[in-house]
Amino acid sequence: MNGIKFDLMSLHGLADYLRTHDYSKKGYICLPDFYAFYYIIKHKLPQRILNDSLLTLMDGKLIEVLLRIKGSKNINTISGYWLCRELLKTDLRHYFLGPDERTNSRMKENILKEFPDARICGFESLPFLDINHIAGNNSIRSIINKIIIAKPDIVWIGIGSPKQDILMNSFCNELNSGIMIGIGGVFDYMAGNVKISPEWIKKIGLRWLYRLVQNPRRFYKKSVSYFTGLVYLIKHQIPK
Asked: What pLDDT, in 10s, does the model give residues 172-205?
């Protein structure tokens, strides 16, 4: 849609792909939600942010609905939460790049408790950055140098889309090996900051409402963007 290419793959198919991936080859995987997709199109950000990835998969019911309206079939949405949990059970090496020290600390405690055999290489928090100050940022580059020393297979990034997608597109090639995967709000779920919605709520596309009810002050603006974005994309992207 609008020149952005989405790959069709199930959660189990993606997990199998990552279990057997050659991690000497660098790359990144995008899991944009509806807000990120809308933001990239509305603000005319370069399509390469998503299209240069190893895979770009849907994490959101509204994107699926739009693609089905345009005639796409056999579409699967991917949950970054369940993907991360599945891969923590493997012998892959993990590094977590998250939004703040408190979330990282709580997430680390929960992961070590639930997945004691997980191979964790490190946790790091990013300073808050404006979306226009991510590419080429020296603070991020210093963190990338720490990641290179740790030698993870997967770097999980949880600063929200499209910020995390811009970061991955800008810095992925500076790694010596391994891949980056953007999983946004999964850090909040795994830290226990936000309770994850039941699967049936996600399937009917109301995960945003579930998060809004839990934390209206934090998610109000983003929830409004879902409505304005839906109207915008239907008007500009769906053929009459």
From this structure: 999 999 999 999 889 999 999 887 766 656 665 6
Instruction: Calculate the CA 110 to chain-centre distance.
Output: 20
Question: Contact, 226 vs 34, CB < 8 A?
Answer: yes
40 touches 2 (CB < 8 A): no
Cα–Cα distance, 231 to 12 (Å, whole number) = 33
Residue 191 neighbours by CB distance under 10 Å: 22
Amino acid at 159: I
Q: Which residue has the tokens 């959101």?
A: 60
Find the radius of gyration of the CA atoms of the chain. Answer: 17
Using DSSP, state whether 18 is helix, strand or coil: helix
What does the H/E/C string look like for 148-202? HHHCCCEEEECCCCCHHHHHHHHHHHHCCCCEEEECCCHHHHHHCCCCCCCHHHH
- Give the percent of the chain with pLDDT over 70: 74
Tell me if the pTM is above 0.90. Answer: no
For the chain, how far is it from start to end, CA to CA, in angstroms?
A: 15
